[in-house]
Amino acid sequence: MDYKDYLTGQLYHLLEGQLTKTKIRAIIEKPKHDKLGDFAFPCFELAKIYRKSPQLIAADLESKLRAPLFEKVQAVGGYVNVYLDKSQVSSSVVNEILSLKEKYGSLEFGDGNVITIDFSSPNIAKPFSMGHLRSTVIGNALALLSEKCGYRVVRLNHLGDWGTQFGKLIIAYKMWGNENEVKENPIQELLKLYVKFHEEAEIEPSLNDQGRSWFKKLEEGNSEALQLWEWFRKESLKEFIQIYNLLGITFDSFNGEAFYNDKMNHVLELLEKKSLLEESEGAYVVPLHEKELPPCLIKKRDGTTLYATRDLAAALYREDTYKFQKCIYVVGNEQALHFKQLFAVLEKMGLNWQNGMVHVPFGMMLKDGKKMSTRKGKVVLLEEVLTEAISLAAQNIDERNPNLVKKDVVARQVGVGAVIFHDLKNFRLNDIDFSLEDMLKFEGETGPYVQYTHARCCSLLRKGDYQERTESIFLDDEAWPIVTVLLSFPDVIERAFEHYDPSKIAKYLLELSKALNKYYSTVRILDDAIYKNSRLSLVYAVTIVLNEGLRLLGLESPVEM
Fold this sequence. Notes:
54% of the residues lie in helices and 10% in strands. The protein is built from 22 helices and 13 strands.
């Protein structure tokens, strides 16, 4: 049951339509302190309507607001504080979770409509660095949240497999590359060549012109350029998939920029047909001065295309192929201008579906306060971080629980989970300073702490020989903080989806874990025969929600640790 909706209905009836149900629900608050109730309704907007002070309106509502599920209603300083009936609500919430299992918190407003999510999108011929982690795990969490809200999700990995950098890489390989060394260790060797190219180009700038020339050959289908490019792409994808498997992330499409190479003429034709293209110093642009944006560069003077051209082609293809309601791009904050231009050009083309296109930006992963740079060779490899995290998890298991079954599996779940959770617990727009030490902590506000709480719950259920059955749940007041957190799970999911903010789920899981562990330290769950099964039912409900919350972030939930 949605108790916020229940309160909304009661207030709507008393206010006789002075505020809509949507408005009432929107302004109902969760008090900061438990002693102020479970819900608070501020009366300040009503003051203008009734021409009375908020305090008088609150007092009037206090005298009239009566319902079986309300234990107490109290007017305090312009607010109406509502206290739910602990006994009834506790029994109802726990039984609802036990009945729905992992479906608890599911919302149906997506109604089966399609959302495409463009995320991860690493550049081929470069290693998968920590810089790519953010898009990958944020995008995956948003995909899982979208499905939880009733959408059909298409996961797109728009690989960076086209552009001038590949002309530069081809030149570097032809000048300094060794075929056997590249075959033996493709990504690391190609990275060395890429870094060397930029070092040499600072001394000999004409190398940049040669790089542009070879990319033009690649666009025109030169057989040597294509053969090298296909080799670079194939080797890169093999390595990327190993990392995605480790993270437990899948995609529906790996169509990268190159896939749209033969679809860009169609974009140019459409722009010309709508008289949107203008020549500027030999290049072609779409002016966007009416949006107070710089012109969108569509075609360079040497005839080669750009990100914008390919992204326009990709948007047209995706709408035609998937008929999306929303098209989400999980791409760093530094690309904000690019997406404003992209969406503005589509709007000028008269394509109404562009209203469903959303750029979800995020802050950078910094090292020593600076952006990581592949060009300068200053990267931290994601695979190395994951490997080290798994190794540390294995050490912890050996020290604390050496007889644990399937240690390797649990070490992977905990190690990988630590890295993912460390990213997702931060609000996405914040920059994160890379610190292996912080990332691999297994205590405090971490993924392993939440996973350990889940494992502790599973242990309690085993020790208590818990048998699930539908019954009246009798819980003491000590359980109420857990019940109120469980109660808010659907609302947290809705807000996380609406704000494209997985950190709301991570923070929620930490709050639920703390509430459970506090309860565990103060209540002897297994020692009271009268309350034992009710308390274990509560623990089982927490287990279900922790498991589902971790899943929504892309983490697994060990049953033993």
